Structure formats: C-alpha cells, structure tokens
From TrEMBL:
Domain of life: Bacteria
SUPFAM superfamilies referenced in this protein's UniProt entry, alphabetically: IVS-encoded protein-like
Protein name: Four helix bundle protein
A Pfam family recorded for this sequence: 23S_rRNA_IVP
C-alpha cells in the first residue's frame, strides 16, 4: 500500500511515509522489549510499541476518511491494527500488574 501511495500526490506520499514509519516502529520496539534489561524496560518498550500501533491505526483511518484508499483495500488492515493495539494493551497491563 505504501508503494502505491508513494506514487500518488504529495498528500498520499506524506501519509504513506507516516504509516511506514509508525508501522515499522511497532516491530522494532517489540524486538527491543524482548531484549529488555528489566521488567520496567520491557514495559516501557511495549508501551511505545502500543503507541506506535495506535498511530498506525490513525493513519489507516485517515487514508480511509480521505478516500485515498478504497475501503475494500484497507478494511482488513484496520481490523488487524485494532487487534494489535488490543494485544499490546493486554501485554502492557499484564506487565504492569507484575504477571510478566
């Protein structure tokens, strides 16, 4: 999707860039969390991953709202990003509660 948007107008390219940045940051922060030096470090990195996942979800919703991408092409990504936010929220809450 980012490749398609990058070939469109300036607004599309900007949104694609933001989505790519926040989306790849999710995975990078999860990787960092798994190598965390402490429980607090793990929780902090997973919290950042959750924030980045929420931001990615925002960019996807914006792409839909601006009709830069048809709903049939973005609906599954929206569902998956929402599920990812829920999973990361659960991990953060569990970690904060001392169950990790």
């Amino acid at each position: 999707m980012c490749q398609f948007l990058d070939k469109q107008n300036r607004v599309s390219r900007t949104l694609a860039s933001q989505l790519l940045r926040s989306g790849t940051s999710v995975g990078a922060n999860i990787e960092e969390a798994q190598a965390g030096h402490s429980k607090a470090d793990f929780t902090a990195k997973m919290s950042i991953a959750r924030k980045e996942a929420r931001e990615s979800h925002y960019w996807l919703r914006l792409l839909l709202a601006t009709e830069l991408v048809p709903e049939f092409e973005i609906s599954e990504l929206l569902n998956e990003s929402e599920e990812l936010v829920k999973i990361l929220t659960s991990i953060v809450k569990t970690s904060q509660a001392g169950k990790h």
